[in-house]
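Researcher: Re-running this chain for the archive, since the previous output was lost when a drive failed. Same request as before.
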Amino acid sequence: MKILLFLLCLTFVYGDTCISPLEGCAQCDSEGLDCEKCTNPDHYIKDDKQGCVEKCEDGFYGYTPEPEPEPEPEPEPEPEGLRRLEEAEEAEEAEESPKECRPCRGGCAKCTSDENCVACKGGLFPNGDGSLCVEDCPSGKLKHKTIVEQDDGEEEIWGECVTKPECTARGRYIYKYTETDEEELELELGECLVSCGDGKGADEEAPKKCYDCETECKTCDGEGGCTSCLDPEKFVKDQERCVAIEDCDNGYFPIDSTKECKRCGTNCIKCDALHLCTDCGTEKYVNEAKTGCVENCGDGFYKSDDIIKTCEPCGGGCKCNEPNTCTGCISDKEYVKGDTVCVIEKDCIDDSHFVNGEKCEPCHPSCETCKGASDGDCLTCKSSTPWVQEGKCVANCADTKYKHARGKDKNCLDECPKGYYEHDDDMSCEECGEHCQACTNGDSCTECIKDSENEYLEDGQCVEECSEGTWIYQVEKKCFESGDNCPPGTHPEEIEDKNYCVETTAPPSFGSYLFSGVAIVLALVTFI
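Model: Regenerated structure tokens:
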């Protein structure tokens, strides 16, 4: 009795008002617990009646009641007031019929109506009319599985049946299908995959496709070549098959980081993990870079016929046919020295050798530097016999020879070279003064160095320019005190306020006058 009174009280107190707010709900039942009407007439009452939603959640579909059929007309017209009242009641009933979320059939994860399932649970797929969940899609459609996370965090696999264009539009991969001449899908075995996964290769060109790899392959490329193995201990060989590490031999070597059998260099029978060739068999040689096999070794290497045929370096920049026998130099700017090494010209000469063709040969033991192998080809000498006299090294020059010393060059000469004068007291060549090309002693220059800073000769000294009032002979860069002192064949002449000794043009010879006269007479005769 108390319960009945309580319910009557609730009905009286709440009526169609909800006890607690329900989202989007405009009206609740008499108890105020379940929603009966949505605020938005286009929304649906949730399956648990605890609010309204614009779209039903997965596993439910939006049910919209169909309007009642029009009543058949009565044989006799009803009074106008009664007819309008009935129409209003029918409209009120239709308005009050709620739009609600209803559950899909068992096994269906997503549906649009009670009879149209579009996605199934548990790895099943909707049949042709969507009324059942089965193991295969109907002909003309591809299996498409997606992983959906549930509210409780668990993942669930849903299955759909899609067409090839639908699969492509979603950016998925098509797997196992064939097409007719009309390019229509033919087999029901096809699948629409999010990714190709293990044991399959991917073709990224639209439409994207998956295809089966060779046996034991985990992934493969567009040509079907194996790129990784299902067994992590095996290695890919020739992109065709997966093999054990011991089968990475006979021209291959294993790379553990990429799990592949890498082919050795050209014609190489064996190689190491660094891809370096270690054996070329009996016919060829491991090349100098150890990247392949060759019949002939390159410059700077010789053929070694030890247990393994290899190209070994000659060393020292040499060409050779066997070790320690330099037959030539790799560089055309070097010379063979001592049959074991090649050197540049400077290093050859600095080491008491001289260049002879392509070789660097030793000087005579008495020479420091030389131009040939005999004792008469010395250019400089050792300290015990420091003077070069007629190509030979001597302790002192002959009494009739002048000693000319300049750095390491010490020579016995018949006369001193330019820039030096002969000092008869000790038979030595002494250097002239600065800018002086020739002199009679250290204080009297007879010729200055042309184009030097002080190139004019005046009173035995080299000066920058002739003194004022002197006469300049520009040809020999000399200065004279008077025009009377100008050299023969010149005459004094003032040019632009300066005095010069100018070359005098020689007068015509008698023969030239005679020739000219004859020419004039002949010309007159011809004219007459």
